Amino acid sequence: MNYKPLLIVLGEPRSVFIEIFLKAYKKLRKKIKRPIILIGSAKLIKKQLNYFNYNYNTNEIIEDKIKLIKNNKNINIINVDLDVRKPFQKIFNKSNDYIENSFNTAIKLLKKKQAIGLLNGPISKKKFLKKSFSGITEYLKYKTSSNNVAMIIYNRKLSVSPITTHVPIKFVNNKITKKNIKDKIKLINKFYKKFLKKNPNIAVLGLNPHCETTDSYSEEDKIILPSIKNLKKNGIKISGPFSSDTFFISPNYNKFDLVIGMYHDQVLTPIKSIFKFNAINITAGLPFVRVSPDHGPNEKMISKNISDPTSIIQSILFFERSL
Question: How far apart are CA 306 and CA 27, in angstroms?
Fold first, then answer.
């Protein structure tokens, strides 16, 4: 059986991503059937291979030859030029063009359906996205002209998704609307059925502490509960709203596959506390499946060779198991 390759964009040059990729490659290269193709600087990869004392060979390929790649015997890479002199180059102005070119290369191949999906390394939101996008989820939505996307932090035991992603807290309540809630949950439910072959049992959290408010307007009564009732009528297995302060006690969350929160840290903080690095970030709603490890560039740990590769291992295995 021929497996379409998985594309991995290396992302920010000053990052722990290549270190953890190499750890994942060492563990998985002989176990997985799907070819992996990196998109990024071949020069940077070689410098870090040498720094971390790996003796793997690289296999530089051109875009129109990726169909010929059948295994992971060598580290397959489509080179994107980057002038690097050190294995851990500081972030500099040309990094933005390099990252943009890497994503453009990946998206072009995915639009041609020459790969199964995209896994990307972290980027510096401040340097790369600046103020144009709040996160890579929103960046890829724009790059692919997608109408609606959702962030899912996925673990096979329990996943979470925020209705609002990288939004300052003071703006969250303005974005909690019936349309946003229903559109996101319908999209996620469809994703689960298509790619995970599962009809998920979904829990929805409230916005206010204990799902109560002393204000005259209650988002739970006016927006969240009516949205849940509407989604139930459309055949979605859904319950709530639940109070977030007690929901993530194991007897509660064990009943569900997915928890919908109203804002980013409401659900990402508990899921990371429960599963640590054993979770991955999935973007639903793009023309292709996009996954990233659930960590950032982590500049403080660069070059120390102590970063945990669990999340990237789970990211690669997701494509191996599910697609």
Answer: 16
The conformation of residue 5, written as its DSSP 8-state character, comes to: P
Sign for the pseudo-dihedral over CA of 219, 223, 226, 232: negative
What order of strands is seen across the sheet that includes strand 36-40? Answer: 58-60, 75-79, 36-40, 6-9, 117-120, 289-293, 280-284, 150-154, 159-162, 258-261, 202-205, 238-242
Q: 152-279 in CATH: which number?
A: 3.40.718.10
pLDDT at position 131, please?
A: 75
Structure tokens given for 195: 């790619």
Residue intervals of the chain classified under CATH 3.40.718.10 are 1-146+286-323, 152-279
At 301-315, the pLDDT tens digits run 888 888 889 989 999
Phi first, then psi: give them for residue 265, nearest 5 degrees.
-75, -15
Cis peptide before 241 (omega within 30 of 0): yes
Phi/psi for 281 (5° steps) reads -100, 115
Span 65-102, pLDDT tens digits: 898 899 999 999 999 999 888 888 776 678 889 999 99
Are 275 and 269 in contact, with CB atoms under 8 Å apart? no
Average pLDDT, the chain: 91
| Residues 6+ away with beta carbon under 8 Å from 65 | none
Q: How far is CA 157 from CA 87, 249, 256, 272, in A?
A: 37, 14, 9, 13
**Residue for token pair 């990233």:** 292
Q: Which CATH architecture has domain 1-146+286-323?
A: 3-Layer(aba) Sandwich (3.40)
Cβ proximity of 75 and 59 under 8 Å: yes
